[in-house]
Amino acid sequence: MTASAADEQRPTATIIVGVRNAGDSAPLLASRLVDAVRRPGVDAVVVDDGSADDTGAVLAASFGDEPGITLIRHEESVGIAVRRNEALRVARGEVIWFVDHDDEWSVAGLDTLMRAIGDADIVFARADFAWGPGPGDRRLIDGVGGWSTPRTISTGSAAELMIGSTIHGYLWSKLFRRSTLGVDPFPALVSQSDVVGVARAVASARSVRVIPDIVYVYRRQPGSITRTRTPDLAALKSAHDGVLVELGGYVQPDERDVFTARFLCLAAVKTAVRWGVAGSAMRHTYRSAQEWARPLSLRAIFRRSKSLGGSILILKVAPSLLPAALRTALKALDTLRALRSRTRVGAEAE
């Protein structure tokens, strides 16, 4: 097959970006999008969620009269989830790729995803997670690490990967057929709306393609909603419930218990510990997690993970001890990561 024939068979694609206060990253975002939409069959929709800086003006000037980019500007901020839903309503592409303005991505990642989709409805790829400036301050996330070649799997198998936390709810390491996303797939949550949207898409998919390729670099920024110091427990619980509504029927009760233990109970306390929550806010967090953990099967959780089972056991019988245990574990993990980072930097310098 010639290159032109392959291009004719590729679906059209829309890149969706929700932005707010993009700051210095706005010009680079504009450059990447202009480069992308000059490829055949690619367009972009950018929604400015009420930026208080000059993001909207910078993007408008940078895009100029580029016909492949639709820029929607708002004075009021209502959240990125709502803006993504809005962008979907005007998207023209048969497939959708969601990206963020402050990460690293290129049209090459989109090309990889589009080559992989074939007859599947969703592509699961991998991403590089960078949390610091050093070459060792990063690790691969999402995707199936043990699969070195692409595979096509069923909806049920994809659901099992998500419930088992092998595949996460990140949007940017995935490509979706527009038809799987439906109307307003992202609930208006402060955080975790992504995973609900992904779960809804998986539930609508006929098949999913899993590839080992890295298509995106996610950079954790100081202002990220995943780094807030007051975790939104209601949003986390709502996202948990939403995922189980969509995908819980594909897995056994034991697997649902493990998902609740990891995604809801442990994540609530771990996030609070990581970002320094203390006092009454911490007590509210671990007591809420304890209530969520009460009906869970410890036997099922221990069978899957002894460390997770140990955390849930503490949460059930002595919840006030879990924050201290997690602080110790996270400190050890950070020390190990720093050591690995220095070792890698030293090896690259030789």
Pattern of helices and strands: HEHEHEHEHEEEHEHHEHHHHHH
**Annotation, overall tally of beta strands:** 9
Number of helices: 14
Largest sheet composition: 9 strands, mixed
- The CATH topology of the largest domain is Spore Coat Polysaccharide Biosynthesis Protein SpsA, Chain A
Instruction: Look at the structure and name the CATH superfamily of the largest domain.
Output: Spore Coat Polysaccharide Biosynthesis Protein SpsA, Chain A
Total domains, how many?
2
Shape summary: globular
Low-confidence stretches: 1-6, 224-228
* Mean pLDDT score: 91
- Gap between N and C termini: 45 Å
CATH class category label of the largest domain: Alpha Beta
Question: Which helices and strands appear, and what pairs or packs with what?
Answer:
Layout: H1 3-9, E1 13-19, H2 26-37, E2 42-49, H3 55-63, E3 69-74, H4 80-90, E4 95-99, H5 107-117, E5 122-130, E6 138-141, E7 151-154, H6 155-163, E8 174-177, H7 178-181, H8 193-204, E9 207-219, H9 233-247, H10 253-274, H11 279-293, H12 298-304, H13 306-317, H14 322-349
Parallel strand pairs: 1-2, 1-4, 2-3, 5-9
Antiparallel strand pairs: 4-8, 5-6, 5-8, 7-9
Helix pairs in contact: 2-3, 6-8, 8-9, 9-10, 10-11, 10-13, 10-14, 12-13
What would you note in describing this structure?
This protein is of the alpha/beta class. The chain has two domains: 3-226, Spore Coat Polysaccharide Biosynthesis Protein SpsA, Chain A (Alpha-Beta Complex), CATH 3.90.550; 252-332, no CATH class. It is built from 14 helices and nine strands. It has helices spanning 3-9, 26-37, 55-63, 80-90, 107-117, 155-163, 178-181, 193-204, 233-247, 253-274, 279-293, 298-304, 306-317, 322-349, and strands at 13-19, 42-49, 69-74, 95-99, 122-130, 138-141, 151-154, 174-177, 207-219. Strands 1, 2, 3, 4, 5, 6, 7, 8 and 9 form a nine-stranded mixed beta sheet that branches. Helix 10 (253-274) packs across helix 14.
